[in-house]
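Q: I'm building a small set of examples for a reading group on sequence design. Run inverse folding on the following structure and report the sequence directly after it, with nothing in between.
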């Protein structure tokens, strides 16, 4: 099939008029293309994990144990709802359930499901988005290697099944070819990144001592320095959720990593606590009450296992694939918190 030679398909920005957005979706070629890309991601994800022997889990979207609790290290607000008089949460992630799944499926567990966040949508965030998440038996380095294999697989699938579609939207497929043919991606520790940024204003945010993170500006500077892709590893433990394992070399650091490309953080990965004493220590350090996570503590006490997992924001990945700059143009049906949008 030859590369599309017509005009570039433009995003209609119909999210600015959400009440009529669905009509634009039905009439605009941008959204017909989005359906193609979503489909490629879905079947390619299943293809990748099936080849590895991992199991897909059918999971509920409600939970009493959110994976980004409101406390130290939280990067999101939970979405609380009432069901038949019981307060619960819509899942922000199914990381805990995938850890549970690894006890049933030692080759790994995965899912592709919606996630819910309480923050307002903006250029880089959706209130409801699709999450491609998986958990495997092994450590952080194992997980990073698998993530890179998965991303190469997705890029190759888009080139095979949707080359013209991507070209219509992005005006190029070179970025897919580069990723599909890439080797190991560069890594830099959080401390090395801070030193590299060398005090540039607005690049590092400090919430409290030993609780720092990079801003979007900091992420962009790093990506530019490393040619577009870089793993940011071993952040301050207080800056990530409690379930990320402590670094054995420095317990103030976490065995976790973010892959920066495209709009910035697109993949988050981490190793989990193997020792239940470390898990309890992390809960206390992050000032998270153990009540809601009692089942998680008991699972790790009764069935200890060294696992690691990751989450890929599908819309953020497609934002990179289409070389676009506003994630709100990636939603077929809009959902903004606090608004009643039909259908």
């Amino acid at each position: 099939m030859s590369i599309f030679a017509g005009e570039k398909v433009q995003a209609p920005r119909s999210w600015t008029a959400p009440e009529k957005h669905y009509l634009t979706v039905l009439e605009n070629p941008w959204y017909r293309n989005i359906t193609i890309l979503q489909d490629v991601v879905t079947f390619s994800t299943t293809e990748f994990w099936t080849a590895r022997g991992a199991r897909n889990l059918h999971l509920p979207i409600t939970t009493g144990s959110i994976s980004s609790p409101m406390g130290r290290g939280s990067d999101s607000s939970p979405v609380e709802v009432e069901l038949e008089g019981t307060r619960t949460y819509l899942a922000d992630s199914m990381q805990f359930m995938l850890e549970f799944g690894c006890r049933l499926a030692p080759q790994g567990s995965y899912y592709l499901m919606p996630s819910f966040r309480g923050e307002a949508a903006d250029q880089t965030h959706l209130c409801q988005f699709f999450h491609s998440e998986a958990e495997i038996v092994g450590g952080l380095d194992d997980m990073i290697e698998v993530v890179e294999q998965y991303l190469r697989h997705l890029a190759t699938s888009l080139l095979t099944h949707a080359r013209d579609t991507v070209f219509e939207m992005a005006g190029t497929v070179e970025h897919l070819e580069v990723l599909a043919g890439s080797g190991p991606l560069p890594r830099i520790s959080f401390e090395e990144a801070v030193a590299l940024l060398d005090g540039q204003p607005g690049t590092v945010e400090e919430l409290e001592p030993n609780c720092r993170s990079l801003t979007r500006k900091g992420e962009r500077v790093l990506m530019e320095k490393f040619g577009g892709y870089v793993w940011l590893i071993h952040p301050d433990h207080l800056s990530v959720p409690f379930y990320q394992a402590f670094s054995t070399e420095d317990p103030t650091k976490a065995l976790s990593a973010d892959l920066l490309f495209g709009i910035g953080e697109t993949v988050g990965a981490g190793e989990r606590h193997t020792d239940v004493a470390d898990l309890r220590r992390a809960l206390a350090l992050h000032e998270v009450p153990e009540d809601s996570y009692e089942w998680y503590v008991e699972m790790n006490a009764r069935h200890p296992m060294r696992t690691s997992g990751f989450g890929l924001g599908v819309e953020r990945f497609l934002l990179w694939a289409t070389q676009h700059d506003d994630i709100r143009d990636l939603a077929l049906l809009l959902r903004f918190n606090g608004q009643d949008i039909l259908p």
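DSSP finds eleven helices and 13 strands in the chain.
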